[in-house]
From TrEMBL:
<keyword id="KW-0067">ATP-binding</keyword>
<dbReference type="InterPro" id="IPR011004">
    <property type="entry name" value="Trimer_LpxA-like_sf"/>
</dbReference>
<dbReference type="InterPro" id="IPR005835">
    <property type="entry name" value="NTP_transferase_dom"/>
</dbReference>
<dbReference type="InterPro" id="IPR056818">
    <property type="entry name" value="GlmU/GlgC-like_hexapep"/>
</dbReference>
<keyword id="KW-0547">Nucleotide-binding</keyword>
<dbReference type="InterPro" id="IPR011831">
    <property type="entry name" value="ADP-Glc_PPase"/>
</dbReference>
<feature type="binding site">
    <location>
        <position position="107"/>
    </location>
    <ligand>
        <name>alpha-D-glucose 1-phosphate</name>
    </ligand>
</feature>
<dbReference type="InterPro" id="IPR005836">
    <property type="entry name" value="ADP_Glu_pyroP_CS"/>
</dbReference>
<feature type="binding site">
    <location>
        <begin position="187"/>
        <end position="188"/>
    </location>
    <ligand>
        <name>alpha-D-glucose 1-phosphate</name>
    </ligand>
</feature>
<dbReference type="InterPro" id="IPR029044">
    <property type="entry name" value="Nucleotide-diphossugar_trans"/>
</dbReference>
<feature type="site" description="Could play a key role in the communication between the regulatory and the substrate sites">
    <location>
        <position position="106"/>
    </location>
</feature>
<dbReference type="InterPro" id="IPR023049">
    <property type="entry name" value="GlgC_bac"/>
</dbReference>
<dbReference type="GO" id="GO:0005978">
    <property type="term" value="P:glycogen biosynthetic process"/>
</dbReference>
<dbReference type="GO" id="GO:0008878">
    <property type="term" value="F:glucose-1-phosphate adenylyltransferase activity"/>
</dbReference>
<keyword id="KW-0548">Nucleotidyltransferase</keyword>
<feature type="binding site">
    <location>
        <position position="172"/>
    </location>
    <ligand>
        <name>alpha-D-glucose 1-phosphate</name>
    </ligand>
</feature>
<dbReference type="Pfam" id="PF00483">
    <property type="entry name" value="NTP_transferase"/>
</dbReference>
Length: 420
């Protein structure tokens, strides 16, 4: 006879978000901020997706480990995530690498980023730990993963994506048996093992782990005592459990949150300029693959107090207009034309300019007669009058950061170097 659960498992869980990475493949976008703090979707930051998933799943204890250039991220968390109340048994801890274990030691790896804060975690006495990466775009109900973890009796449950087998060469891949128990964990294999029920697909790690807290702490302390360890979940902790305990895969399709408009399970690593641009531009589609308008699973973030967006001028060649575009608050489209573009808060697009396939971060000024196509413009940039980007690949590559797919990243430093 099984006992009926009185409350969701999420109420006895703590979510621990690993948000210390730079994300160097985003180039200059992460010169001033960590990857989880990079803007996404018009008003959010990348980290808001993992945090919102935790909150919407019913988790009320959250810790965020920060390290690389964390000021922008910490400021965002303080402004947008300060509503947790201790008197309701809620907590929200920002945990920068602060040399708490050693005067010389920063977080050495993902596992060490948890180990160094054991003395902060243990007094909360969470029964379960949900370890999350803070740099992916997706919607997921962690309660369903917690339920599988408990029901299967696993030592660790690992969130996994089903990806075409030969596309899994860049991931950590789970080799599973017919019950989804992990029998081997292979890092970036040249010939990934297929899934028994779907041999043309492989199970790739999402960097999401569920543990019983007591077991996790034992693993972390043992790992910290090993001088040969790299202090990493994927390289050290998980392979040890696969070899010595019970590791089980949890398929993302079982807990992915989808509205009526979302046909496929949506997960994106927006870790390159091309992927970042594409995921933002995807939101301008009539029916986007990711529904950020789903009120049943809101993406929480810092909500700035801003005036509405405004479109002005109605002359033949000077009309404030937007087609298939996302335009945030405090934007003024003054005689400018937008096509398939996404604008964050506070953008000013001046007369006769044209933006097509443009991802414009907050507080950018677009000068008159600028013609911009397939660009990502960093926050606070002032685009000079008449600048043309997206027509001459060779000139673009000399002036800006041009990606393999022809997307130009533009920063103020690049603009300041132009000889106009």
């Amino acid at each position: 006879m099984t006992t009926k659960r009185v409350q969701p498992l999420a109420r006895d869980a703590m979510a621990y978000v690993l948000a210390g990475g730079r994300g160097s493949r985003l180039k200059e976008l992460t010169d001033r901020r960590a990857k989880p703090a990079v803007y996404f979707g018009g008003k959010a930051r990348i980290i808001d997706f993992a945090l919102s998933n935790a909150l919407n799943s019913g988790i009320r204890r959250i810790g965020v480990a920060t390290q690389y250039k964390a000021h922008s991220l910490i400021r965002h968390l303080q402004r947008g995530w300060d509503f947790f109340r201790p008197e309701r048994n809620e907590s929200f801890d920002i945990l920068p690498a602060s040399q708490r274990v050693s005067e010389t030691q920063w977080y050495e790896g993902t596992a060490d980023a948890v180990y160094q804060n054991i003395d902060i975690i243990e007094p909360y006495n969470p029964e379960y730990m949900v370890i999350l990466a803070g740099d992916h775009i997706y919607k997921m109900d962690y309660e369903l993963m917690l339920q599988q973890h408990v029901d299967s009796g696993a030592d660790v449950t690992i969130g996994c994506l089903e990806v075409p087998r030969m596309e899994a060469t860049g991931f950590g891949v789970m080799h599973v048996d017919g019950t989804d128990r992990i029998i081997d964990f292979v890092e970036k294999p040249s010939d990934p093992p297929g899934i028994p029920d779907k041999p043309d697909f492989a199970l790739a790690s999402m960097g999401i782990y569920v543990f019983h807290t007591k077991f996790l702490m034992e693993c972390l302390r043992r790992d910290a005592a090993d001088p040969n360890s790299s202090r990493d979940f994927g390289k050290d902790i998980i392979p040890w459990i696969v070899a010595n305990g019970k590791a089980v895969a949890h398929r993302f399709t079982q807990s992915c949150v989808r509205s009526d408009f979302e046909k496929e399970a949506y997960w994106r690593d927006v870790g390159t300029i091309d992927a970042y641009w594409q995921a933002n531009i995807d939101l301008t589609a009539i029916v986007p693959e990711l529904d950020i308008y789903d009120k049943s699973w809101p993406i929480w973030t810092y909500a700035e107090i801003t005036p509405p967006a405004k479109f002005v001028h109605d002359d033949e060649d000077r009309r404030g207009s937007a087609v298939s575009s996302v335009v945030s608050g405090d934007c003024i489209i003054s005689g400018s034309s937008l096509y398939n573009s996404l604008l964050f808060t506070g953008v000013r697009a001046n007369s006769y300019s044209r933006l097509e396939g443009a991802v414009i971060l907050p507080n950018v000024r677009i000068g008159r007669r600028a013609q911009l196509r397939n660009v990502v413009i960093d926050a606070g940039v002032t685009i000079p009058e008449g600048l043309v980007v997206g027509e001459d690949p060779e000139l673009d590559a000399k002036r800006f950061r041009r990606s393999e797919n022809g997307i130009c990243l533009i920063t103020q430093q690049m603009i300041d170097k132009l000889d106009l």
